Amino acid sequence: MSVQNRIRVGTCPLFAAVLPLRYALGPTAAVDTDAYDLPALSGSFPELGPRHPDLTGHALNYTSRLLRDGWLYVWESSPPKLVEYQVDKAQLTQTPRAGRVIDTRVKPHLVLRAGDPAGLVWSPVRWSEAQYRAAKTDPAVRQRIMRSFVPGVAPFSGKVDTVTKQIGEYNDAASYGWSTEPGTEHAPNWLKALKQMRACEQQTYAVIDDAWGVLLDLAALLCVRKEAFDSYQEHHAEEWAIASVIKSLSEGDRQLSAQLPSITRYDELQRTWKDQEIQNERYTADMRHLAQLWVAWFNTLQMTGPSSMDTACGHFDITQPITREALELHFAAACLGPASTSVGAEAITLSLEGNKAGKPWLLWALLGLPSRLSVSEIKYLVDFSDVARDNQAAVQEGASKLARVFGYTDALNKTADKLKQHKPASSVEALFLSLAPVAGLQLHQGEKGTGAAGRLYMAAALARSDQRIQTSGVTPRQVGEWYSDLMGTRQSMPAHLSVTPLTSGVADGIPFMHLVPASTKLPPLPVNLASSVELSSVFDLKGALSKAPIKSIVTLVAGANFVSSGNVFVDNKTVKNGFSGVGAAVGIGAAAAAVVQRMAEVDWASAVRQSGSTSMSSRLLLVKALGRAATTALAQGVFLAFDVVLYGLDAFEAYRAGDFDTMVANLSVAGASLASIKIQVQAFRALRVARAAVIAGDAATIARGLNVVPHLGAKLLGLAFVIVGGVIARLYTADSPLEKWVKYSHFGIRSDETWSHSYTLSMDKLYPVLFPISFDAFRLSEINPYQGQVTSTYLLLNLPGENVPLTDVMIHFKGIEIWGDTLGYHTDQIKKVEWTGKDFARHSGTRIPVPAGVTPYRRVYHEDGVRDLRRIEGELIYSPQEGLTLPAVKIMERAWI
Predict the structure, then answer these.
(1) Is the pLDDT at 731 greater than 70, yes or no?
(2) Backbone angles phi, psi at 842, to 5 degrees
């Protein structure tokens, strides 16, 4: 044998088997990640609910787990080549991308030269040819995206037997059900894997980067924590909701508050309040903590390096339709839970504003762009200055509300037109659902908002769904009838009732927005909608939700309509002093609750899966990313978005004053309101608990992928709006009815067995008590100058407020009068009656005491010979404003001596 041959044989390289792992969140023993420059973790796992093992108290660690399905790229330095592996259930299959494959076996580990540097990077999608070529030929690219290591050498590698107890799949297999990668059954047999690795001289491991995995798991923890809270709340929903109603009533009513200890089981009531407070505080603290950890990772979009989100997003070549859609779906899953927290929404908003360092990955995904537009080009898309010049008369200071809203929506439409020129991808529902609460913040401010995030969201949704917003001027009656249609309370009035005709043109119409196809030719200036047109046909909410390519903008536009029209019905003065204003607040609240019910009827999970590309891989990715808890969060995120449009930041569970201090110019932190209805925070909290009581079961139904059928009338959800800091309680009840309801409620000292156990039935009983108007019947002996002494029956209609005028269309009673004699010698006679406002006259006199703050109207009855009026029964319908009809209340009033 020659010397050369002996040297070649004697220097045969040693090989190292390298088990590739990823750092991940978990309760398993922590791995050393100090050299990775990762955002710091703190705290422990939150409560995860009954569906998961109890991990409370376990530290939230960076542990190691097997690679997720995707693609692994390996840079071998000797000889230099870039090898591609497909990862499937933690098994590696080499592809022929680097040349002919010598070892075709499928195995869980790599085989590399011992002692030679190598580079590793994992990608959720396969690189395009351009990406592969750049990494293969450019050392700077490899240095930026790859984790370089030497097999077996710290800090990124080591001997495999030292990491055995730090791999989640092999030590805490049952503790990862909350993760986006919950399954551990696919893990290769550990002993068999070690045996295979012993074929090499060294057995090592390498922990590499998976920023997406960490971000998705933090989002999953947020969703699972929300699900755990919902589960607890569902179990206690009935008593929590009733207790919240009592608390809300008593906080604004000193008399009721003073009587609570004597008319309720006060200790039990206080325990319920305390339990609710503790659970809410824990939940808020957990959500805030997890959201802050998520934000720390999300903000690595502004950084570079193997562990950054910038590098993780760079694996997606947005010029390729399938990978661009995959990026969008990844952001959808990653933002779903965090966007519903104030700190998460702030980070997302700032990212969408485009003022941060780094590439605008989220903006590119939202806009559906097939190319990387620069931030300056994107800002040009949402620059409203050109539109403002075109509509100077509309948007100038002092212009009408209709003109300002028209200018704002016209700017959105033109922004969508400019975006459409860049050929964005078709709409994908998931990301728009995830970010809907963020967009709601901008729409809460409407045309006064200065931030770009909401405009970008709306423009992207319009452009990618081929829709535009048409704004018309409408009358108060048309808006009121739309509210009534939403509640299902609109009824035909009596034939004899003469309704004042609507004027054909109104100088300052109420702005009303609805979605139309992009091909619709929109008017250049705001115009009033014909008085004969019903808004339910213009904006059919249920039909729009079922047909819209992007359903979240349907609810956002509906919320914007509530904001723009609310001050027409209610202002501060009327809420405090006028019963028609308070009644309108009730109607608006009930109509808003009806919108939520319409949203609950949508199968959001199915809607998401059916949108966007027909790519099977993309759909499978979405199904996997949007797990059980995340699917529930889809619907809840849309509910929240609607609430945010109406109430601003107070709608966020984890909101604290100061969260958005850096964005005061863009977002109104203080004084959240529906138009100028100053609804206190406690009233909104009561709404949230009430909603939990009536749709808690719906969340589980949505999670199972079934359609949701709401099981409650809109008036019951709307009651939470009725309780506005106790304003209505003392206004509508002279003394005993409210206290009597509390006494017979779930926590009362005389709980009624037929209804006190049920929130739904309890609200049915409370509604007549809080109904804005009431009847009283009195029987009086009077002296008639011609007939002498006669007995008269006075039926009083009480309108809360001083000197309140009663119009013909304000009330509509349909029922029966029952006439009889005192001794029962004659059979009762029943007369059908139908009354409106004109059937009552203003009452005066002192024989019947009238409480302060009430305007009485009356009907007077006399004996018909042998019979007199004994009682009335029927349904009373109240319209506080023209067109706006509240849910009916049943009336039964007896005449007493």
Answers:
(1) no
(2) -65, 135
